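Re: the 239-residue chain
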Amino acid sequence: MTSPSVPGGSPILALAGVDTYYGDSHILQGVTLEVESAAITCLLGRNGAGKTTAVRTVMGFTPPRTGRIALRGRDITGAPPHRVARAGVALVPQGRGIFPDLTVRQQLTLAPRSGGWPLGRVYERFPVLAERADQPGGLLSGGEQQMLAIGRALLQGPQLLLMDEPTEGLAPLFVARVREILEEVRRDGLAVLLVEQNLPLALAVADRIYVLNKGRVVFEGRPDHLTAAADIREQYLGV
C-alpha cells in the first residue's frame, strides 16, 4: 500500500482494522482510514471493492465483526444507525432514499435538528427545491432528488457527512452543483467521507484519497499522489 503523509487536522472519524461480512462473505478486510475535520476524504475503487459497505459499516447498518470505529475519539463500533445519527453523522445514500409520496417541504422538515442549515439556506443553495416545495419527491428529476437528499442531510446539523455516489447518473450541471456544495460545507468546517466513481471530481475536491480493492486499502494519499501513481489508477480504477 502506498501511504504518503497527508497533512491535516485531527480525525473526526477513524476506522482501525475493520472487518465486515455479509454472511460468510468477507467484504471489508482490515480497513484502516481516517476522516479529518473540515476536510473531504474520498473513497475510490471499482464496483464491488467495498466502498458502500464501508459507509454502511460506519452508519451502523452493517456492523463490523472485528475492528474499531471511533467518532471524535468515542467508540461507536456496532452502534445502531439512530445512535450514529444522533452522534452527528448524516448520510446521503446511494439511490438518494427520498420518499416519493411526500412533498419536498415535508421531507425537508420531517426531522429537523438544531445546529443544521436553516431551511432558507437550503432553498437558497438549491433554488429548485423552493420551486418544487409542494411537489411529491417522486416527480423530481434524478438531479433534483439528489439535491433534496443533500439538503435533507445538511438540515440535520451533522459534524460528519457520508455521501455514497452522489453524482451517479447526474447531468454535468448537477455534478458541478454537488462540487460547489462539497467545497462550501468544507469551508463551514464539516467533515465529508465521499464515495465516488467520478475520478476527476474526486481529484478536484478531495484532501485525502483512499483506494479500495477487494475490501482492502491499496492506496492512501493526496490527490496529487494519486495523479502521479499511474500504476495504481490503471490497476485499481481502470483509468
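The longest helix spans residues 172-187.
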